[in-house]
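Collaborator request, handled under Task 6.
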Amino acid sequence: MNGQMMQQPLLISTLLIHAERHHAAQEIVSRRVEGDIHRYTFRDLAARARQAANALRALGAQPGARIATLAWNGYRHMELYYAVSGSGSVLHTLNPRLHADQLSYIMDHAEDDILFFDLTFLPLVEAVVDRVQCKTFVALTDRAHMPVTKLPNLLCYEELLAGQSDSFAWPALDENSASSLCYTSGTTGNPKGVLYSQRSTVLHTYAAALPDALNCSASDVILPVVPMFHVNAWGLPYVACMVGAKLVFPGPALDGKSLHSLFESEQVTLSAGVPTVWQGLLAYVETNGLSFSSMRRTIIGGAACPPAMMKTFQDLFQVHVLHAWGMTELSPVGTVCSFKPVHRTMDKSAQEAVQSKQGRVVFGVDMKIVDDSGRELPWDGKASGELLVRGPWIVSRYFKDEGGDPLVDGWFPTGDVATIDANGFMQITDRAKDVIKSGGEWIGSIDIENIAMAHPGVAMAACIAAYHPKWDERPLLLVVAKPGQSLTREALLAFFDGKIAKWWTPDDVVFVDAIPLGATGKMLKHKLREMFREHRLPTV
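Structure tokens returned to the collaborator:
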């Protein structure tokens, strides 16, 4: 016997309809590429999204067509999030930090029909225009700011909208139809596309907003530092509409001073981003003797949060850190490090040890760790194996079946090496391809990097494997020193004493000017391994 409940599809457009109906006066504040601060409401967002949907139809966009964006976090980009997916086309967010070669490859692989872009990225668009099939380009600005360019027939976004009605009936799409397309960061080989559905996105939004996940409500003021071109800003543009939270978009200004001024002027309560962005913010705040008057929690993901950064946020500024983990293939939220009651009675050092983990799954995600033979390993916090996941917002195959079937017995292999403790808290110890195998034993590079980052003179650290004639591989530590600091190899290696197993201590330290970062802020260890493949470790 079936249940007798209504059947209504889970659609992205319903998030916007809900926000307009129940939170119409809530603000969206954006620092624009043009330099000023723009303010409007969810009511305005909904009306302009309908105009944008009409404009897409006028441009000939068909259901399923890929509509690309190359834009910062801002209200116009938000309008396209809903106009494109809500009307039945597929939103394809492009990462402007990619090289023009990768960008043109991705655009043609996705078969993008239209590209909307912020003025900042005009040189990048001009660099690829003759190399892609896409022939319709729209600048996200008004007529007064339209640039002089070689782009043929460049359209003006504000003029497109002005010529359209704000009346548009969002279609009753199949909830399994494609909604948006994101490509993996492609640190090796060509990036692969992950095609999200209407259903998967709405389910992910429900889960991300939960109290033990990102804990969002109408009382929040959310500033996503994580870009809207990076896995849909971790779902926060959707979450804000679902719960009615005020949104603050930073635009292109992601330096510490610009971010802090927005945090204070708009009374931001929650932000989210990768560790490299927070380094700049914390450095600015500490150097200038500032504080945070309203921000009380920040979500840190994309890479492991160094414990030293966590302590700075919490001890100096009373900003609680929510450590999280996910992937493009997971839409992206997989785990969040929210305490269980048992953790709240622990002493501070024990709590910090728990917080250094990537956390526990949100409902909808299942996970396990396996050894090299695929045997499931125990959740004892000690056994380490490859992390596998499954769930309704996790990829089943890549766009156009690139790479064949990625699943193993219905589970997606993440490529991460992890432990899981008895309370279900997962901790990434390394990427499978980055783990250091010394004398047949594994050494986790992340642990070494976290200790190095706790040194007051270290700005950034990366640990990679270097060839060793006896042990096969040994840890090599690469360090960027803070300005004005005089660090030595010996002093830094001594800093590891008592903090790590002696045989895990790096064999050598090399000081570098910079560590290469990928398009999403992650360290490019494959480049480091290539750069230092001839490095000879000390033999004594």
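The cover message to the collaborator said: "The domain at 434-531 is CATH 3.30.300.30 (GMP Synthetase; Chain A, domain 3). The first strand starts at residue 27 and ends at 31. Please let us know whether this matches your experimental observations."
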